[in-house]
Amino acid sequence: MKYHPDPKGDRRLFGARYRQNSIVSKSFGILADRPECYLYSPVLGCTITGVPRQDITRHYSARQALRLLHQDRGLAGQHTVSKDLLALIDHITDAGHADLFGVTGSFLVGCFNTRSDIDLVCYGTAGYDAARRLFKTKRLIRPYAGDDLMRLYLRRAKYMEGSGFDALIRQEQRKFQGLTATAEAHINCEPLRDDDDPAFVRMTAKEIGDVTLLAKVTDHAQGLATPALYGVEVTTILSATVDEPDRFARRITHLRSYLGAYTGTFRAGDTVHVAGKLVHLYHGDHSCFGVELTPWNTGTSYLANLTG
Question: Domain of life of the organism in this record (predicted)?
């Protein structure tokens, strides 16, 4: 749950005040009076939160939001960050890439303010390539560098507690993110899979326990878009909540994350320190063990950090 009604919130939606939520697992407390919003997901292998279908009053399209903001510039407001967003949308549209990008976050639902970030998504391989070119356009986006690196570190470290500065910055610089040209607002673009991407079709999971380990990344081809899936080879299991954890070491072959925190952050050959949920993954007629990095229903920080 990204936004929820709160009389002390600083966002306005549907004529009421809303508060922003950036922690996935906090949704359970927010929805404590709505237990019908708790459901078990066989795809994720755990209980998550979701809105009952009959309670959904509006669907949002990131692609459509980009087109509407281009057509009616007043929808973006008059903030400095709004002008930066419109300049980006103009650039994307002029390049013929409007179908490859979408606008998410506060500018998608219309509850932005002067402190808002710019959140974009791009779709598929073509979108990934277009985003790579976009983030090299320095008249629009300035990469994090110098003193701004501490700003980026503090932004991410609050969600990735225990991450060292050098390792975190190294993996964060592999993402599409930076600062806008005028407002110096944070901007990021999360690569998403094509609508017909088969990688996660028929994939289900079962939770087993928590595990901390060291692993070498063997394949990052499926880790460049969300959901991210990395091939790994475990070198050492450091701790686990299951008995005889070493029996799982050679059987753990994947890292998985449904959040953008780990999309595009690792490359084949990297060694990573991982703390996450040990899961058994089923994909059609095949199965394997993996580590889930998305903390759907726990306050525990699931982390994967570069080492060395």
Answer: Bacteria
pTM of the model: 0.91
Which pLDDT tens digits describe the chain residue by residue (308 residues)? 788 888 888 888 888 888 888 777 788 898 999 999 999 999 888 899 988 999 998 999 999 999 999 999 999 999 999 999 999 999 999 999 999 999 999 999 999 999 999 999 999 999 999 999 999 999 999 999 999 999 999 888 776 666 788 888 999 999 999 999 999 999 999 999 998 898 888 899 999 999 999 999 999 999 999 999 999 999 999 999 999 999 999 999 999 999 888 999 999 999 999 999 999 999 888 999 999 998 776 667 788 999 86
> Do 187 and 86 reside in the same domain of the chain?
yes
Alpha helices in 118-157 (DSSP H): 124-134, 148-157
Spatial separation of the C-alpha atoms in residues 205 and 302, rounded to whole Å = 17
Q: How many domains does the chain have?
A: 3
Query: Of the candidates 267, 263, 264, 262, which has an alpha carbon nearest to the alpha carbon of residue 232?
Result: 267
| 140 CB-near residues (< 8 Å, 6+ apart) | 84, 87, 88, 91, 134, 180, 181
Asked whether residue 188 falls in the same domain as residue 209, the answer is no
